[in-house]
């Protein structure tokens, strides 16, 4: 504690050795501190929990929001890796909604272009959809990094291969076709 009452010093954020993925610990034979969850006994349930209404709402422009499809695909991806119970459903919903809003912004950029008209001076300005798209993409990446970190630390099987994050451009292109 400094003289002015502020807490300074200590370990810096991100300092130190990075933690290894659970699959790496298993292959190395060192499970020190690794917690492997027991296999559940005969649990019966739905593939995907019920999707909230706001994820499948019709938008003002009349198009459907694709957040429901993204939510289902992400949840199934997590379930295939046995991590669906470790990731909060709200985080998956936030990821799905951010992806669908990013897609909406990209559709607007395609429809209206990169330039807009200033409301008072009528001069050309950068489209606000470009900035919104950039912010939504940041949100998408932050949410995905959180989800992926949970999978990386807790998945006892190989978790590589295709992921919902890899399919973002496919979602964007299929949304334009109206699929």
Q: Could you please describe the fold and organization of this structure?
A:
With 179 residues, the protein is mainly alpha-helical. It has a domain at 62-177. It has 5 helices and 2 strands. A hairpin with a 6-residue loop joins strand 1 and strand 2 (124-126). Helix 2 (67-80) packs across helix 3 (89-112), helix 3 (89-112) packs antiparallel against helix 4 (128-154) and helix 3 crosses helix 5 (168-177). The mean pLDDT is 81.
Query: Quick check: average pLDDT?
Result: 81
From the alpha-carbon coordinates, what is the Rg to the nearest angstrom?
A: 21 Å
The succession of helices and strands, N to C, reads: HHHEEHH
Morphology: extended
Largest sheet, order of strands side by side?
A: 1-2
- Strand coverage percent: under 5%
Percent helix range:
40-55%
N-to-C span: 59 Å
Protein name: Terminase
InterPro entries: Phage_term_ssu_P27
Write out key terms for the chains shown.
Phage_term_ssu_P27; mainly alpha; Terminase
Outline the secondary-structure elements.
Blueprint: H1 22-28, H2 67-80, H3 89-112, E1 115-117, E2 124-126, H4 128-154, H5 168-177
Region (Disordered): 1-20
Protein name: Terminase
Pfam families: Terminase_4 (PF05119)
Summarize the model shown.
By secondary structure, this protein is mainly α. 46% of the residues lie in helices and 3% in strands. The chain has helices spanning 22-28, 67-80, 89-112, 128-154, 168-177; strands spanning 115-117, 124-126.
